[in-house]
Design a protein that fits this description.
alpha/beta; Rossmann fold; Calcium-transporting ATPase, cytoplasmic domain N; 2 domains; 7-stranded mixed beta sheet; 6-stranded antiparallel beta sheet; 13 strands; 41% helix; binds adenosine-5'-diphosphate; binds magnesium ion
Length: 286
């Protein structure tokens, strides 16, 4: 092995904004068959915006923003921004609870309130019209959350997070090299498929709970080596499990720590460049 080749390779990468943190990942790069992507903040910009509100807009925003005040989820940031723009006053909340992969709940004026996806709805009825609106918005690649008060749904909020400008080209390059591309997300299947179609991703695994991402990577490893690209706290176990973990430089600290490669420019076109650079560097070391 020649450490010089490794240094040259990592030095060249660093100039391109591709940090190869350890030489170990290089060994696996040649055999990668599948590249798995997180959705939010990886394929998309990670800057979601509220686009539609169904129901009494003021009441829906008032309840939702009160609940999201204590959440750090990107969806919460979008809802709080909309409430601020609309100058909605927030209610006081008690007993705040974040329910991983599902949403948030709290007590407002002694009433149970929640914001989140359908995994949060148990004995709550959805009207036909709400369901129709939900499907329509999801097909437009918008994430839909329900706003509930006392076992009743009072409205829907649709939130859009557009793909990064370069994601489509990045996926096309990887596919042209014979790699299978997969999206792995906690978001709803309809939304995930709409975005996958926009950027040309082959397969979608949606509605994945945060704790289950690594298990899905492990299952995909049955058909060859896997590279995983992600940015979130919930991506850290999958980044560790993958043969090649690639973290976004804009990601959370724990994601960056868990990745063997870090993309400082947050541009998915650098995935193909990182794989190519690692391959060349490894072949020189060998
Ligand atoms: P990902 O980061 O892969 O998009 P998460 O596991 O963070 O997914 O969230 C999955 C889903 O859980 C979201 O799409 C949303 O429906 C729901 N959810 C999670 N946190 C919140 C929140 N604070 N407010 C509303 N919905 C939420
Ligand atoms: Mg993410």
């Amino acid at each position: 092995a020649t450490p010089t080749a490794l240094m040259v390779g990592t030095g060249r990468g660093a100039k391109m904004g591709i940090l190869i943190k350890n030489g170990e990942v290089l060994e696996d790069v040649n055999d990668v068959k599948t590249v798995v992507f997180d959705k939010t903040g990886t394929i998309t910009k990670g800057k979601p915006e509220v686009t539609d509100i169904v129901g009494n807009n003021e009441q829906v925003l008032k309840i939702a923003s009160a609940l999201e005040e204590s959440s750090e989820h990107p969806l919460a940031t979008a809802i709080l921004e909309k409430a601020k723009q609309s100058k909605v006053e927030k209610s006081a909340v008690n007993n705040f609870q974040a329910i991983e992969g599902k949403g948030v709940s709290a007590t407002i004026n002694g009433q149970n309130a929640f914001v989140g996806n359908d995994k949060l709805l148990h004995d709550v009825d959805i009207t036909k019209d709400m369901k129709y609106q939900m499907i329509k918005l999801q097909n437009e690649a918008k994430t839909v959350v329900f706003v509930g008060l006392n076992d009743q749904i009072i409205g829907l909020i649709a939130i859009q997070d557009a793909p990064k400008e370069t994601s489509k080209e990045a996926i096309a390059t990887l596919k042209a090299r014979g790699l299978r591309t997969v999206m792995l997300t906690g978001d709803n299947k309809r939304v995930a498929q709409a975005i996958a179609q926009e950027v040309g991703i082959d397969d979608v695994i949606a509605d994945v709970l945060p704790g289950d991402k690594a298990d899905h990577v492990e299952a995909l490893q049955k058909s060859g080596k896997v590279a995983f690209v992600g940015d979130g706290i919930n991506d850290a176990p999958a980044l560790t499990m993958a043969d090649v973990g690639i973290a976004m430089g804009s990601g959370t600290d724990i994601a960056i720590e868990s990745g063997g490669i870090v993309l400082m420019k947050n541009d998915l076109r650098d995935v193909a460049k990182a794989l190519e650079l690692s391959r060349k560097t490894f072949n020189r070391i060998k």
